[in-house]
Write a structure and sequence with these properties.
By secondary structure, this protein is mainly α. Helices cover 65% and strands 0% of the residues.
Length: 304
Amino acid sequence: MTVMSPAATDRTPAEAPPGGSGSAVLRALLRNKLAVAALAVLALLLLAALFAPLIAPYDPNAQNLLLRLRPPAWQDGGSGAHLLGTDQLGRDMLSRVIFGARVSLLVGAGAALLAGVIGTVVGLSSGYFGGWADRTLMRLADVQLAFPSLLLALAIVGFLGSGLWYVILVLGFTGWVSYARVVRSEVMSLRTRDFVTEARAIGVTDVTIMRRHLLPNVMAPLATIGTLHVAAAIVAEASLSYLGLGVPKETVTWGGMLSDGQLYLGTSWWVAVFPGIALMLTSLAINITGDALRDVADPKAYRR
């Protein structure tokens, strides 16, 4: 029997992640017309967020009380200078919707990334080591799930104070459980596979096994959960801003715009409706993309 040297451990291959190669994933996504449309919407939102100062026709916080509550351009009294009208302080609605995308996407991506890192580390450790580590970490997850996530976020933000980075931290720390449970389940089914047993036999360390052999095999479900969590974090941020406990008022957010516009729904509907539509379309596009990624992660999807 040939014994492999420790130096050979770096060349021990991990099994291919479920879901196939990158080209197969791309082909499967392109076959889903709804997913393509959702990705196009997300691409436009990302471009608008990145280049908001160049795209927006006005400063989103510039006030002109002489132009307050002007309707959209296609209604009587509207003007082509303000396509989506103005709010109660005369601020251009189109500019504010565009700038609001920056905060929403940043909070969504930042919170999902933070929650994903925490949940992946916890899930890998819990599923791989088992025993007391698994019981301890899963009890912590149970305690986390015992509190409604939004109420817990409200309590933490109320204690720490409002701020963009506080919101990202709070939504990240309150959203890791779903990642941890899925990763733990996957790792528990993988840790008895031959490639893990062989890696242990030739002296590969536990950290290396988790990093190089287990982590690549859980990336597909992680991508799906992460995509869906972005949408959830965007809605949660809007809820916090609507309640006045999220991002400070001077920063344009869709939730803050909804809060400002609720008093004018009967007379000036556009103040609240346009940020609401932006929030709905963004969440819908992200959820459709997440569903498509979930379908692609199933190898049977390539045979449909």
